[in-house]
Amino acid sequence: AMASALKVAVVTGSNKGIGFAIVEQLCKQLGSSWAVYVTSRDEARGADALSQLKQRGVEPRFHQLDIDSQESVDRLAAYLKGTYGGLDILVNNAGIAYKGDSTAPFAEQAEVTIATNFWSTLRVCDALFPLLKPHARVVHLCSSVSDMALNKASPELQKKLTQPMSLDEVKQLMSDFVARAKAGTVQEAGWPQTAYGVSKVGVRLMTYAQARDVKGDDIVINCCCPGYVDTDMTSHKGPKTIYEGADTPVYLATLPPGIKQPIGEHLYERKVVPWAVKPDFKFV
């Protein structure tokens, strides 16, 4: 068969951690009629991940991708278009988090974290959404930290955040947050002091806006919290394995054609988590 007959899945930031487990599970579930791509910033790490995955009995492919680089994102888009004529599954897993004991100034943490987790995820969407084929599935890795951030925000900001928001309004909100972090006025604006939490509020609101805006034949966009997973990002403190963390993203990436729900939702352990202020909120 010609390569273009293959269906294609791309997982960003997948040379290790949850992304690595998502690639492995997709390969196992989707089988040989799919080309499943490991991507990473670093070619050598990508090659290493590929050989580890082959040892685990699966045969993904590799393409370099640094979501912070427009040039790198454009190169992947051109490659997918030229090789396969499109894309069937996109899992936006790449992201960063400063450690709790980081001494980096909050302004820097806000700028860098929002730049990668929000703006670079959006950069990938802008480049790859035009390639989505009928029945495509998109999954953004979000976090229950977004719920925590909402519940710690001022009542005024909570009201704003829980109204339907256009993508342009979400962008403005993220720009505002970074500007305030630089000016030292984050708390006056009603935001909690968490760059990672606010970046994931951005991803969640982006998901809601995209699910309303993106037109196509049965294209389904959702986001999810993988849970607290034992990865480099959590300094290996999380109780969940990477495979447990991969479960909900893989479930959303493989939703069957014509599904009516979940669409444009945030899920945790395969269940929809409403975007609402919860007076009795407990962080999972």
TrEMBL record:
Main EC class the enzyme belongs to: oxidoreductase
GO molecular function: carbonyl reductase (NADPH) activity
Keywords tagged on the record: NADP, Oxidoreductase
Family annotation (PROSITE patterns): ADH_SHORT
The keyword Oxidoreductase is annotated on this UniProt entry: yes
EC number: 1.1.1.184
SUPFAM superfamilies, sorted: NAD(P)-binding Rossmann-fold domains
Protein family per UniProt: Belongs to the short-chain dehydrogenases/reductases (SDR) family.
Listed PANTHER family: CARBONYL REDUCTASE (NADPH) (PTHR43963:SF4), CARBONYL REDUCTASE 1-RELATED (PTHR43963)
Name of this protein: carbonyl reductase (NADPH)
Species for this entry: Macrostomum lignano
